[in-house]
Design a protein that fits this description.
alpha+beta, PEBP_euk, ribosome binding, about 725 residues, Phosphatidylethanolamine-binding Protein
Length: about 725
Amino acid sequence: MKNPEMVSKPNQERRLEKETGQSPITSRRRRALLKQTDGIPFEQMPYQCFQEARKVLQEDRKEKLEAIQQQRERIARLKESKVEPQDEGRKQHRLDSMRQKLERLKILADINDPVVKRRFEDGLGDMNKPIYRHLAHKKWLAYKRPLLMQRITQMNVMPDVLPHVEPLVSTELSFAKRRVQHGDIVDSRVSEIAPKMTIQPYDRGERLYTIAVVDPDVPNVEKDGFDYRCHFLAANILISPTSTNVRFSTLDAESQTIIPWLPPYSQKGLKYSRLAIFILEQPLLDPLAPGTSALRSQSLDVAAIKAAGRYTQRAGFILRSLVNSQKLKPAGVDLFRTQYDEGTAGVMQRAGIEGWDVEFKRKRIEPLPYKRLKGESTNPSLLAAPRPTPTAKRTQKQDSEITSRYIQLVDPSTNRLYEDPATEQPLPPRTLRGVLATLDFKTHRLIQVSPDEPRNRDFIPVCKIVEKKDEYRREKSRKEAQKESKALQAKTNSVKTLELNWAIDGNDLSHRLDRVKVFLEEGRKVEIVVASKKKGRKATVEECQGLLGRVREVVDGVKGAREMKAFDGKIGGFGVVVLQGKGTLGGKEEGVGKQAGEGEVPVAKSWGVSELEKRKAHVEAQSRKAAELAETTAKGIARVDSPTSKLSHEPTFKPSGFNPRHDAFLALQMAEFARLPKQEQEDMLDPVKRHQKGVLGAKGEYADELADDEDYGDLAKFAG
C-alpha cells in the first residue's frame, strides 16, 4: 500500500514515508473512507446524510452566487454614473467598499464546500481564488503569525530596528534547501551563500516590495555601544499570491539590487548577532478596473538611490530613514541569528572582511569605593586594561580556517597519501572548496597536518579527514587519564594524621594500625602522633617499645613503604613519626651503626633494621646506662658537667627509647639528693611518689621534666 490517499494505518504511513518519502494526504478517517468506496469520487459518496447535507450547501451556494451577480451589476452601474468633481472621492470610496463586499461574498459561497476544503488540505488550492487565500490566511493567523510576533518581540527587533511592524504577508527563509525557523541560529558557512525566501501575500493582484536585511548588533568600541549594518538591500521585487519565491542571488543588479549579499558574521567574544529581514511594501498607484488582475505599485528609481549614495553604505545603515524617505510600508518580517563558530574566520577572510582575528572582551567596571577590595587599584586605566588572551590549546587549522586553495589529502589510518590503484601514484591535490562541499560537518572534520609556509607561494598543505566521534573518544580518554593521575597525585601528597596513646588497648591499637596499613597501601603519607593522657594510666617502657615495634611491623608488611621522618620525641612522652606508603628506602638497610665504645650509645639509623637487632641494641644500651649512672653517682657530678662527657651529647636518632641528656640530669639530681640530710630526703621522697613531681621541686631547674619521666622509680630505689 503505497498510495498516499489510501493508507489508513500507522504502520502503513511509516512504511510510505520510509520507502517513497511521501506523507499521507489529509486525515486518516477520510483516507480509510476512500479506501472502502472502490474509487467513487468524494462528492458522490452514497451516504444519505452526506448527500442531504450537500444539497443544503448547494442551495446556499446558489443564493451566494445570485448575490455576487447583483453586487457586480451595482458596481458596474456606479462606475458608469457621472458625478460632480467634488464627489469623485466619495464615489471611489463607495466602489472600494462594494468590491470588498464582493470578495466576502465569493468567500462565503465556497467556505462550506467539502471539495474546496479537501483541495486546500491536500495543498492543491489555487491562490488566485479568494477562498483559498482566505483559508491560508486564517491558518497563518492561528499559529505562525503569533509565533513570529513572539520571536521578534522577545528578541527586541522592535523597536531596535523599526518602532512598529504589523506583518501582513507570511515569510519562509531557507539556505541551500534548509528551512530556517524564526530566530534560529544559522552556521556561518551555511549563510555564506545568499538565501531564498518565500513571501506569501493574501490580497489579490501583484505588488512591488523592497527587502532589507539589517544587523543591529555591530559593536562600536568608541561609543561603547552598537551600530547597524546592512547585509542586503533590493527593491522593485514583484510578488503575487501565485509568485512567491525570491532568490536573493538572481535579482537584477541594475534595476533591483542596491546592496549585494554580505555573509552574516559575529566576531569572537560576542554572544550572537540578530539578522532582521524586513519586507517593505512600495507605494500603490490608483487601482485599475475591477476586471483587471493586478494592483500595480510605484517603482523605485534604483539608479538614483545608488547615485545619491546615502543608502549604499553598509555601516551605519538606518532603516527608519529609508522607510520615511521612500514612503515604504512594513508588510512582513523575519529573523535569524548568527554566532562565532569554527567557520566564521574563514567566511570573513573569503568575503574580504577585516577583523577576522579580533576578539572582543567586556571592559571591567570599576567597583564602588565601599565594595573595592583592600589594596585594589583605583586607576581607571589599570582597571580597564584588557587581560591577556590565554593561549589556544589547538594548534592545527580546521575546516574553513585553512586558507590554501588546494590541499593534499592523506589516509587518516596510515598517514600516507592517497594513491591511484591503477598507477600506484599519489593522487593530485584537490580544491579546498570541493573537499568541504563533500563533508558532513556534523560527523567529520578536515584538519591541516603540515604547518603553514607563508613565504612559499606554491605551498600545498597536507590535510586529513577525521571523524569527530574518534576525536571525542581520544579526548575523553586523555581527560580521564589526566583526572586519574591528578587524583593519584593528590592521594599520594595527602597527609593522614593518627593519634595513639602509649597505654592504648590492644584491640584499639590493632584497629588503628589496620587503618595505617590501608593508607600506606594507597601511597599516602601518614603522620603518627604518640602521647600519654594526663589523667590516664602511664605505660611502662616495655609497652612503649612494643607499640613502636607494632608500628615497624606494619611498615615492614607493606611493600614499598618507608619511614620518611624518624621518630622524634620521648619514649612515654610526646613523639611524632612520619611514614610514606609505596616508596623506596633511601638506601640500603643499615643495622646498628658502629660498635659502641665505652659510654657510647649505639644508634639505629634506619627502620629497615630487624626487630631482634633493635631489641639487642636496646638491652646493651640499658646495661651500659645503668653502670655509668652508678659510677657517676659515686664519683659526683664533675664528669657530668664536662663537655667531653659522652652522656652530654644527644644522638640523632633514638629508637631504643631513652634520652642521654635526660639521664645525665637524672644522675645530677640523684647526686644532690644523696648529699641532703636524712629528714629532708624523706620529706622530698613522699611527694614524688604521690604526685609524680620533681625531686627538687621548685628549686630544681628540671623538676617538671623529671616528674613526667617513667624512671623516677630509680630515684626512689636510690634514696632507699
